[in-house]
């Protein structure tokens, strides 16, 4: 019954911004860590960011630090990824994932038990 539905992807110029959203349902959103991962053409799934259940801890892969911000609104069962200063290398299908605990920071996508359908982000001139 767990459902994760990503939205907000699209085409952006280098240096531009996008905000991704993930609407969650079918579980108690506020007690689980959440994560974003992405998959570029010809590459494997790459962990991007994670956030504690209460939003108190956030973690990022080095390539997006200072540019991306993960957040959540537990009153709306929604996860966000604000992406600024976008680069062509950010082009990928972005997925949100549900953690198996409350205070997870793992960078291994296999340790998240549900993933959404993904939203496409394309960064190009």
Strand content: over 45%
Percent helix among the residues? under 10%
The SSE string, one letter per element, is: EEEEEEEEEEE
Number of strands: 11
Describe the largest sheet.
7 strands, mixed
Structural class: mainly beta
Identify low-pLDDT runs. none
Overall pLDDT, averaged?
A: 96
For the terminal residues, how far apart are their CA atoms? 40 Å
Question: How big is the Rg?
Answer: 13 Å
Number of helices: 0
Global morphology: globular
SSE layout and pairing:
Elements: E1 3-7, E2 10-12, E3 18-25, E4 34-39, E5 46-51, E6 58-60, E7 68-73, E8 78-83, E9 92-98, E10 114-115, E11 119-123
Can you describe this structure?
This protein has 125 residues and is mainly β. Helices cover 0% and strands 46% of the residues. It has no helices and 11 strands. It has strands spanning 3-7, 10-12, 18-25, 34-39, 46-51, 58-60, 68-73, 78-83, 92-98, 114-115, 119-123. Strands 2, 4, 5, 6, 9, 10 and 11 form a 7-stranded mixed beta sheet that branches. A 4-stranded antiparallel beta sheet has the order 1-3-8-7, with no helix packed on it. The protein is globular, with a radius of gyration of 13 Å. The model has no long low-confidence stretch (mean pLDDT 96).
